[in-house]
Structures are given as C-alpha cells and as structure tokens.
Write a structure and sequence with these properties.
Two copies of one chain form a homodimer.
Chain A: H1 9-26, E1 32-36, H2 40-51, E2 57-61, H3 65-76, E3 80-84, H4 94-104, E4 108-112, E5 114-115, E6 120-121, H5 125-134, E7 138-142, E8 161-163, E9 177-181, H6 183-190, H7 203-210, H8 222-238, H9 240-261, E10 276-280, H10 287-298, E11 303-304, E12 313-317, H11 325-341, H12 348-361
Parallel strand pairs in A: 2-3, 2-4, 4-7, 7-8
Antiparallel strand pairs in A: 1-9, 5-6, 8-9, 10-12, 11-12
C-alpha cells in the first residue's frame, strides 16, 4: 500500500490521535506532547538540547548509564554539569538531591525514573520535583522504561519534561518517541536567546508541524507514527492503571520465582522496577554464556549488566505485550536450566511454584 | 511477529547488507556509509553537525529551500555562513561557486544536487567539487531527491559527504536515512577539538555501532532499517544505471506531455530534474484548488511551490516505484482536467499523445 503523506489531511487526524493518546499515557494535559522523529535517545536529546541553554547549570545523577548520557547531552547543549551521587543499582536519596539542588541551584535537573541499565526505580518523584521547583529548576524525567508499564503521573508529580521510547513498555517498533513538555518548559525554550543547537529536534520549530499550523518542518516517520498510534490505542483499551497493575502482578511473579529458585534480585523491593528485573549473576557463572543459551536455545533475549554492573547482573525485561504469565514461566524455566548448566545450583521447581502462587494470589 | 533486537546477531547481518547496498546506490566505496536513525533532515543534520566545527566558514547556496536549511544547521553547529547566489529554480553557476570559494575559502561547501523545492538539478558536480578541493573545502551534497533516481556518483565526483532520505527515489517509508562520508570527512570529525553538538547524531560515537565493534550507542529503528534494506535490494535488482535510465525515460514522457498540453516547465532542459518536475501554474489558476482536486478526485498528491515559488509552480514527483508510465498518463489526464476546471485552456489529448510517443521511442 502507498503511504499517506506526512501533510495529507488524513495523516493530520492520525497526528491528533497520537497526541491525545500520548497525553493519556503520560497522565498529562500538556499541549506539547508529541512523538519525536527518532528513537528514545532522540527524544532524550530533544529534552536536553531544547531546555538547556549555554551556561545553564544542569544537575544529573550518577546512578546508572543514562545519567552519564544526560551529562553528555547537557554538555553538548552548552550546559555546566553538576552531579548528585548514588551507586549504580540504587535510586537517588531525596536528601542528597535536595542538598545538591540547594548547593548548585541548577536551571535544569534531570533524573531517571526507571534506570534500564540497573533495574532501579526512582521512588519519591514528587519530593524531587518539589525540591527542584523550590530552587527554580525545571525537571526532566527519563521515562523510557516506565511509560506504559509503571506508575507515572506527569502532571500530578509536577514533572516539566518527560521522554520515552516506543520499544519498551509500549511494545512498539522504535522510531517515533514520546516527549511531553509543560507550558513552563516550553516558555523557557521559546525565550531562549540562542537557537537550540539541533535543528532537527528544535521544539520551537516543531511547533509549526505539531501545533495548530500543521505546516512542514521535516518529513515525519509516517509508519512509525502509525505503529505508535496502534500501541497507544492498546494502552488505552487496557487502561493505563490496569496496565501498571498487570506489570506489578506479572513481574511480581517473576521476582517471586527468581527468589524462590535461590537467585537474588539486585534491587530492594522499595526500588524494584517491574519492567526491568535485575537479577544477580550467581557466583562463578559466566553471564554471557547464560544469555547466549537463552537466545540460542529458547529464543529469549535478556541483557547483561553495563558499566559497574557488567557481568554481575542479568537484566530481564517484562514490558508491555511481553509482560504475560506464560513468558514469566518460560523465562524462569529457561533461566534456571541455563544457570544450572553453567554451574550454579538452583531449584527451578520451587521457582515455578512460587511464580504460580504469585499469579494466582491476585 | 516480535521484532529482532538491534544488537541481535541476526540483525547485525542485516546492518551489513544495508551498508553494502547503500554503497552500491551511492556509487561509493566509503566505509562510513550508514542509515541515520531519523528522516532525511536527520541525515542532513548529521552531515552538518559533525563536519562543521565552531568558527568554520561554511558556504551554502541560496537557490532553494534546502540551502536555507543548510544555513540554519551550519549556524547551530557554530559555523560562520557565507553564501553563493542563484535564483530559486536555477542551479548554481560554477563560476559563481569558484569565485565564492576563492573569496571566502570555507572549510565546508554544501550544495543541493536535486532541489526538491524548485525541481532544479545541479549539473557540473565534478567541477564544483574540484573547485572546493582547490581551496581545501570539504563538500556536502544534498542528494535527498536524487539518490536512486538520478545519476549520482559519489566517488567519481569526489563528493565528501552525501545524505538522502528514504521516501523519495528509494520508495521507502521515511525513518532511516542514507549518509556516506569519505575518509577525509571522517578524519575531520575524528579530529574535532569539541564534540559534535548532537549526541544522537555524533558520527564518532556511531562508529561503535556501525563500525566493527557493533556495540550499543542508541536503539536503531529496526523496522525502518528492514524497510530500507528491502528498498535498496530492489534498487540493486533493477540496477542503479537502469534505474536512472528509467527515471529519464518515464519522467521525460511527463515533461513532453506537460509541454504538448500547453503548460510550461520551470527548469530548462539542462537542469531539469526527472524525479521532481516543476510545472508553471498557468496565469489566473489557483494552484491550491488544483492540488486539492488531484488529491480529492484522483488520490494523486502533488505539491505546490515554496518560498519565492509559492503559488507559481506545481511540483510533481516521479520517483522510484511510482515512476511508471501508467502514473504519468494518469497524472497528465488528471492535471489537464483540473487546470481546465480552474480556468486554464490546455490540450489534454495532445499531452497524452506526446507522452505516449516519448514512451514508445525509447
């Protein structure tokens, strides 16, 4: 079938649908809620490149891979980067955040709601945003691995800018990536004294296409936007809160199974991230051999650790469409078998029984 | 079907295919030949953001919409912009280019091989690149509307960087966009004293993913890369020179038909662009009413003029899969009818006869 053009009247209706459905998924009324024409990192760069002006102080976290990426993007936008520290695999402590905010008084504070590299969820988001707003900072939240899978309330939690990707909890092919900006964030962008350093991602210019005018800025990735609409429609059909509950229930069974089998989760329950389960690699086991076995023998792709956690954790996605009881039981069986064949001792049957219990309890 | 992951061994093979096929279509041996993770403007920005360093003088043309975009991107990269002039709808004069190069001695010279906004092809490319290299400038060519449709020889013509889009002569959904860089261009990027202002489009960082290492930089738009591979496979199956010849023959029939009908082409034959045919709007005719009729009554999308040429031309694509005799005959009939109903006098039958003659001659 020929594609519809990106300025075709029929496509403009699809754009309206996508914007409405994105607002629903983000739990926001933000007018500036759009799909960015690229994968999640493009939406991330759209957030930093637009919001950060040369000379702005930008506070970023050190507790995972994506905090470093924030740093790199903020620097390239001309920002002066300062950090708030926490170890990889743990969330930020609100007291540390507040102290860093008071000390540095940044223009922008970025944090990662769901750290894909470590499986840590950031609790206490409203406490962090309140502390940031107290010093006049705007808050950027990385919600790549939370949007559509984990409780996220952009407006209620007073997040100024949030971005995400398609291929995590929305179960959508990557290529058009959610971004939402508050009026306050958009005002900072509109009042910039120098243009955004990226033309492609300039939110002020994108206004002409995604705002009322619907005039040409750049060619949109048509088929990715169709796909995103369909993915978001499925979110709306299920209901966003029901979807969060499903992730808690199904990934909860995964966590219970992992523990009952005799393996350890990296996160404590207070910052366990249902959509990305970090499981410690048992002593003496070659993590790569396990992930190769899962892919080669079962067609299941899990990831290893990055940075400080390389070789130390398995990262097991439980996201969107794939977050289902049958996948959890398959994974537990395959993972148990693989770590045993690589020399660990685990009780697969106990793991499956515990997962079954957890699934039938709710 | 579940998507393959962007780091899956099976996908790495697909990446190799895409790079090999892109080299074929660009007529280059450039190692740095990749699809950029965004639409054509992302590939364009990748070219300018990487190649232009703060303080570099950048020479850009004024003869169409995309020269202005080059200017905007070069400025955002920190470049000092100077211009070489030609009216909208005409190519650059090599003497003017040489004079501008000698006067400004830029680090980078950008030109548009096929101006989508005006339907003008830039002839004499090897003359322009030789003049640029004489003053030590690297040359960026916008080949958005030429790659896969119009003769383009990156290596033979000594173009340093060329970028394109999927949705023009490759007939591919937009979202992964061709970019090729010579070793000389890559060396300038590698030796930058400051990082590229875009993290997402940083060619130096992309080396880790598209080079031998194949390690994570950002999530690639998987399904767009599949689509691009398929589009490029069709180019290779047809043969690139055969494809150029088809565009000349079929669009030549369109041009003959337009003229025989009594309408005028904007370009002279020396800079006629087969893939994008600019036809003058007859005196007194409302161009928008005509494009609306074509879309509403025939499902044919043509575009109007931009900038200096708004309301003055129709822009009729004849690209890739759509560049076929039946489409030319349909378009001529529908366009003739529509301009007549909007008050012009044309001879549709004569147009069709001339198109038929042109098609049967070759």
């Amino acid at each position: 079938m020929p594609l519809i053009g990106h300025l075709d009247p029929a496509f403009l209706e699809i754009m309206n649908d996508v914007q409405r459905l994105l607002r629903y998924a983000f739990r926001t009324e933000n007018r500036w809620t759009i799909p960015v024409s690229g994968t999640g990192s493009a939406a991330m760069e759209a957030a930093f490149a637009n919001l950060v002006e040369p000379g702005d102080t930008v506070l970023v976290p050190t507790n995972g891979y994506f905090g470093s990426r924030m740093e790199s993007m903020a620097r390239r936008a001309g920002g002066e980067v300062v950090q708030v520290h926490a170890p990889w695999g743990r969330p930020l402590d609100p007291d540390d955040v507040e102290a860093a905010l008071q000390k540095h008084r940044p223009a922008v504070f970025g944090f990662v709601h769901a750290e894909t590299s470590t499986g840590a969820l950031q609790p206490d988001v409203p406490v962090l945003t309140a502390a940031a707003h107290d010093v006049g900072a705007l808050v950027i939240a990385d919600t790549v691995t939370s949007l559509g899978g984990v409780e996220l309330r952009v407006d209620e939690w007073n997040i100024d800018v949030a971005y995400s990707g398609g291929q995590k909890c929305l179960s959508c092919p990557p290529g058009a990536s959610p971004l939402t900006l508050s009026d306050g964030a958009f005002a900072k962008i509109r009042d910039r004294s120098q243009p955004t350093r990226s033309w492609y991602l300039d939110v002020g210019l994108l206004e002409s296409y995604w705002g009322e005018e619907r005039s040409y800025h750049h060619t949109a990735p048509i088929s990715n936007i169709y796909a995103l609409r369909e993915a978001l429609r499925l979110v709306a059909e299920e209901g966003i809160e029901e979807r969060w509950a499903r992730h808690l229930r199904v990934a909860g069974a995964l966590k219970a199974g992992v523990r009952a089998m005799g393996l350890e989760m990296l996160p404590e329950d207070a910052w366990w991230l249902p959509s990305l389960n970090a499981v410690r690699v048992p002593e003496g086991v070659d993590a790569k051999a396990v992930t190769r076995r899962l892919l080669g023998e079962h067609g299941i792709e899990i990831a290893g650790g990055l940075g400080d956690l390389a070789g130390k954790i398995f990262r097991i996605g439980c996201m969107g469409h794939a977050c289902r009881p049958r996948n959890v039981l398959l994974l537990l069986t395959a993972l148990g078998e693989a770590v045993q064949r690589e020399g660990a001792t685990v009780d697969v049957a106990a793991g499956l029984a515990a997962a079954g219990d957890a699934l039938s309890r709710d």
